[in-house]
Amino acid sequence: MLSMDHSPYQRKIAGIFYEESTITLGTGHTQKVQKVKNYCQAEQVDDEKVKLSFLGNAGQPTGIVIEMPCEDFMKRYTLDPNYHVKTKEEAEHDRHVATAEKQRARGELYSAEYEYTTALKIDPESIRANFGIGTLYMEMGDTRKAKDVFKKLSEVEAIFEEDNKHIFNEFGIELRKVHMVDEALANYLKAITISPADEHLHFNVARIHYDRKDWDNALEWLQKALEINPHFRDARQFEALILKEMKELHLTPGASKVEQAADPEEPAGTPR
C-alpha cells in the first residue's frame, strides 16, 4: 500500500522480514560457523517507527514485540517474499536437528546421532541433517558410515542450491578427508558454477590437483583464486610451495600442458 504523505518511505513497510546472524557450533577442530535467519512480522507504524513481532521456528508469534526506527530497520532487515509457515513435520525435523547440534557441542555424540537419525526419518534428503550426521561420524572415528552418508549427500541435487552455498566448501573438505577425491572435485566444480566468485572453492580444486601431483592444474586453479582475491595469502603460499617442489624435481611449470597438446591421446591432468 502506498503512503499518501511525503515520507521518504513511499511504500509502507509490511510483511515477513529476517535479520541474518552468525552462530558458532561445536568446539575445537569440530567448530563450525553457521548463519541463521531471525524472522519477524513487520508493520510500519508511522514515518519514523516500525513494529516488529518476532516469529518462532514454526512461524508462530513468540509474543516478543518491539519498535525500531525505520532507518535502522531498513539497514538490518531483508524482506522474504517466499516465507511460508513450516509444516508440523518441518518444525519437528528442525527441532531434532537443533537438539543434535546442542548435544554435539556438549560432547554427547551418541545422543546427537539419535537426534540426527530421527530428523532423517522425517526428511531423508535433509542437507542439514545428512551433513550433520556425516561429520558426526567423522568425529566419532567411523569413516565407513561417514563415507556412506557423504556418497548419498553428493547425489542430492538440493545441496547445490543457492541457499546451501555455505556448505559447498565444507562438504568438499569432508569428502577429501574420507578419500572421496572424485566426488570432492565434482562437488567443487558444480559449486563454482553457482558461486564463481568464491576463491576458496578454486583454492580447494587446486589442492585436489596437488594431491594428485598434477602441479600444472593446481597452479592454474590457484591463479583463478588469486584473480578473484589478489590478497589471498594462503593461495600465494601454496603457489610458492608448488613452484619450490617443481624446481627441486627439475620440472618446468606448464611443460606437461605443452606435452599433452602435442600428444592428444594422453589424458588431461596425467600426473608426472
Describe the structure.
This protein is an alpha+beta fold. Among the domains are: 14-79, no CATH class; 86-164, Tetratricopeptide repeat domain (Serine Threonine Protein Phosphatase 5, Tetratricopeptide repeat, Alpha Horseshoe). The chain is 53% helix and 16% strand. The chain has eleven helices and five strands. It has helices spanning 70-76, 88-105, 109-122, 127-140, 143-154, 165-177, 181-194, 199-211, 215-228, 233-248, 255-262, and strands at 14-25, 32-44, 49-55, 61-69, 78-79. It has a five-stranded antiparallel sheet with strand order 4-3-2-1-5. Strand 3 (49-55) and strand 4 form a beta hairpin. Helix 2 runs parallel beside helix 4 (127-140), helix 7 packs antiparallel against helix 8 and helix 8 runs antiparallel to helix 9 (215-228).
Count of beta strands: 5
- Measured by DSSP, the beta-strand proportion falls in 15-25%
Report the biggest beta sheet as strand number plus sense, adding barrel if it closes: 5 strands, antiparallel
CATH topology of the domain at 86-164, which one?
Serine Threonine Protein Phosphatase 5, Tetratricopeptide repeat
Global shape: globular
